[in-house]
Amino acid sequence: MLDANPRNAPTTKNSSRSEMNIAEIEELVYAAEALYVAIPDLTGDIDLQIATWKALKPLRDRATVAMKELEAMIIDAADGKAVTETPSGVAQLRWSMKRNQWRSNDLLHAICMTVYAEDIECPQGELVAKVEKAVRECGPFNASAGWRTTALKEYGFSPEDYCHEQPGAVTVEII
User: Fold this and answer.
1) How far is residue 84's CA from residue 77's CA, in Å, rounded to a whole number?
2) Quick count: other Cβ atoms within 10 Å of Cβ 115?
3) Which of 70, 95, 68 has the alpha carbon at shortest distance from 80?
4) Can you tell me the distance from the alpha carbon of 96 to that of 3, in angstroms, rounded to the nearest whole number?
5) pLDDT in tens, 122-160
6) What pTM was computed for the model?
7) Exposed, middle or buried: residue 75 (CB in 10 Å: 0-12, 13-18, 19+)?
8) Do the beta carbons of residue 98 and residue 163 sit within 8 Å?
9) What is d(CA 118, CA 114) in angstroms, rounded to the nearest whole number?
10) 126-138: buried (b, 16+ CB within 10 Å) or exposed (e) per residue?
């Protein structure tokens, strides 16, 4: 029977985090892959299925925590660079912005005036269609109820001029 207690989980020869090397990490990954491949063999044995689930649950939780810790370490090690290349792969960092307190009335007015100024000789029907198109593309008509910053930039607007911005989360993508 598998032991579900994380304290009894097997450890590598060098259990200290700082002493782990790539070979030991690859060994752990190989063991996890072997277990994944063996899952179909558990068909029909509910007791073994439950015991395996109980054994895997704390490992999954610890893997999630480990991934978050690794991402934080990668962000620190990248030292502000958007792309960091190593022999093991490429780390790509992306910074988001939190935007709130939109001055929507001012922005809507600016969009309408910009579209109007671009083609002042445009027939009224076409002008209304152009304004509607710009508002639909830029406006807060989405689940987040936020203005679409990429579209605003395409129309020449700086979102920071119409809202309060503060740095958001940094995400890590390993390629």
Assistant:
1) 9
2) 20
3) 95
4) 42
5) 787 788 888 999 999 999 887 777 899 999 999 999 999
6) 0.56
7) middle
8) no
9) 6
10) ebeebbeebbeeb
The residues near 59 (Cβ < 8 Å, ≥ 6 apart) are 6, 9, 32
Q: What is the 3-state secondary structure (H, E, C) of the chain?
A: CCCCCHHHCCCCCCCCHHHCCHHHHHHHHHHHHHHHHHHHHHCCCHHHHHHHHHHHHHHHHHHHHHHHHHHHHHHHHHCCCCEEEECCEEEEEEEEEEEECCCHHHHHHHHHHHHHHHCCCCCHHHHHHHHHHHHHHHCCCCCCCCCCHHHHHHCCCCHHHCCEEEEEEEEEEEC
Residue that has been written with the tokens 């304290």 in this structure: 7
How many Cα neighbours within 13 Å face the side chain of 13?
A: 5
Q: Rounded to an integer, what distance in angstroms lies between the CA atom of residue 108 and that of residue 110?
A: 5
Confidence at 19, pLDDT banded by 50, 70, 90: low
Domains of the chain by residue range: 6-78, 95-174
